[in-house]
Design goal:
Blueprint (H helix, E strand, L loop, with lengths): L1 E5 L2 E10 L3 E6 L4 E5 H5 L2 E2 L9 H12 L3 E5 L3 E6 L5 H19 L11 E6 L2 H10 L9 E4 L4 E5 L4 H19 L11 H10 L20 H11 L6 H11 L2 H4 L4 H18 L1 H12 L9 H12 L3 H14 L1
Parallel strand pairs: 7-8, 8-10
Antiparallel strand pairs: 1-2, 1-5, 2-3, 3-4, 6-7, 9-10
Helix pairs in contact: 3-5, 5-6, 6-10, 7-10, 8-10, 8-13, 10-11, 10-13, 11-12
């Protein structure tokens, strides 16, 4: 274990990446800290083994961090920070989403390994308060109802908007949190965004976490994503659909370009949803393959494309054709 300074606070954790100019430390509460310059030089090694913080420690620290206007509720898998007096609705929503995620993944052969920390969810009283909290965390986000912050390992949302929209966002971000804490993804591996965001999109429909995961496949469909695909590619899915899949596999650029962002999320959903429902072995191979890559190892276009074709056992045009037929059947 090492000890380091972050602002005015002294923290402890374990190095997971250590270079001469930079060190990434996993804190005792599950947060990732990147130390550079003087902060890197002043790290002190301790003669004690790494131990995660206890639930009582984390709960106490969260209460101090957010103050008397908030309460910290504990569930089996979460510590939920919320304005006082909001009841159990939010903790139950997070628990329900997580249990459904684990059940869905396990049934498709994805190896699940429980994390070492309780997952932290922060519910701010309204949208303005949420953006203030994101600014404090140095997270740049606009026009969102909530996010999962990889470094802090927290979901942040708010309790002041349309419940249907916030609920879909919460399920999306909670799926990210469950995936990163239960070894579906790794927080220190470069994972293609079509994989991570495809899973997030999969869990937006309420039927995915209803307790029965949607009795019919049509109930599990992300209608917003399906609508975007039909708008962008037509009901017969033009050859542009195959090109979009190839571009998405090869790089994250479609997510970065504001003109193609909605298309990127929709196509990512179609790929992951198709594999999860029709080719679960390929689905689990994609997740296992991206998860086991080296820490922060670069991932170029050629490697991404060749890995994908190896995992799914076919070329991209054939894969796109199968996804297309699947979408038409919906």
């Amino acid at each position: 274990m090492v000890e380091f300074q972050e602002g005015q606070q002294t923290r402890r954790g374990i190095p997971i990446m250590d270079f001469s100019h930079e060190m990434v430390v996993l804190g005792r509460d599950g947060q990732l800290h990147t130390l550079r310059g003087n902060a890197r030089e002043r790290v002190r090694t301790l003669p004690t083994p790494y131990e995660p913080a206890t639930i009582l420690e984390m709960r106490s620290n969260l209460q101090k961090e957010f103050g008397r206007d908030f309460e910290v509720l504990s569930t089996q898998h979460f510590l939920v920070v919320q304005p006082r007096g909001r009841g159990k609705r939010w903790p139950e929503m997070f628990e329900q989403s997580h249990r459904a995620f684990v059940n869905y993944m396990s049934r498709r052969g994805v190896k699940i390994r429980r994390g070492r920390f309780p997952m932290v969810a922060v519910v701010m009283p309204d949208e303005s308060a949420m953006y203030s909290e994101l600014k404090r965390m140095e997270v740049n986000a606009k026009r969102v109802a909530g996010i999962y912050a990889l470094e802090s390992n927290r979901v942040i949302t708010h309790d002041g908007g349309h419940l249907r929209y916030i609920g879909a966002t919460l399920r999306h971000e909670a799926a990210h949190q469950s995936a990163y804490n239960y070894n579906v993804h790794s927080r220190v591996v470069v994972t293609p965004r079509w994989v991570t965001e495809g899973i997030g999109q999969m869990f937006e429909p309420e039927a995915m976490v209803s307790g029965q995961s949607g009795l019919k496949i049509r109930e599990r469909v992300n209608l917003d994503s399906l609508t975007v695909i039909r708008r962008e590619f037509g009901s017969d899915l033009s050859s542009d659909f195959s090109d979009a899949i190839r571009d998405l596999i090869g790089s994250d650029q479609m997510f970065v370009n504001s003109k193609t962002t909605s298309k990127a999320y929709a196509v990512a959903w179609s790929m992951m949803f198709y594999m999860a429902e029709r080719e679960p072995q390929a689905f689990s191979k994609v997740l296992a393959g991206t998860n086991r890559r080296g820490t922060y190892q670069p991932y170029d276009r050629f490697a991404r494309l060749s890995d994908f074709e190896r995992w799914v056992g076919t070329d991209i045009d054939q894969f796109a054709s199968k996804v297309g037929w699947f979408l038409k059947s919906l």
